[in-house]
Amino acid sequence: xxxxxxxxxxxxxxxxxxxxxTCSQNMNHEYMxxxxxxxxxxxxQIYYSMNVEVTDKGDVPEGYKVSRKEKRNFxxxxxxxxxxxxxxxxxxxxxxxxxxxxxxTFGSGTRLTVV
Amino acid sequence: KNQVEQSPQSxxxxxxxxxxxxxxxxxxxxxxxxxxxxxxxxxxVSLTIMTxxxxxxxxxxxxxxxxxxxxxxxxxxxxxxxxxxxxYICVVSAYGGSQGNLIFGKGxxxxxxx
Lengths: 115, 114
What we know:
heterodimer; A: 0% helix; B: six-stranded mixed β-sheet; five-stranded antiparallel β-sheet
């Protein structure tokens, strides 16, 4: 089944403890992206990747890191999480990025709470 | 500034009724417009994608329209079902720019009551 898999689904952590949220897609998509979703703000892009070893900042990149060493994986790293990073996170992938008329497939989400 | 505005913010309708959700955008140069359905706590799922030259696209009971001149889109849901209760997000993609991102509206939360 074609899908984007995020792990974990839920995570509670403490301020300052490094964590990684994994994202993997099995559709050979070039483009991958991370979003956070907060009440009243909608989805906001954190980082995106147009291809392997190519990543770039989205609208809200502060406090996050990403890497794209392989086409299928795009992990989101929080080196020193803070409570304002408590949010619902989504990974998405697409055959190609913006401007192309391809659908985006979203993962099921990771609900992160930083205390 | 590229923006996508959706209305209403929330909507309650009775099962079996029709409804229409609105999306206005100021995105240039326009590439395509997408409607997504998002169940609570889940990832968005694509309903339709429309390019500049398309003015109507259907997906079952969902029909999206696009007026590229007025920069407006609507999503019409026919004979609503309880399972239609979700947030509906309008997303516009622009050509060019330094960011490969989509511009998301904040969504309309639809509740279908029995």
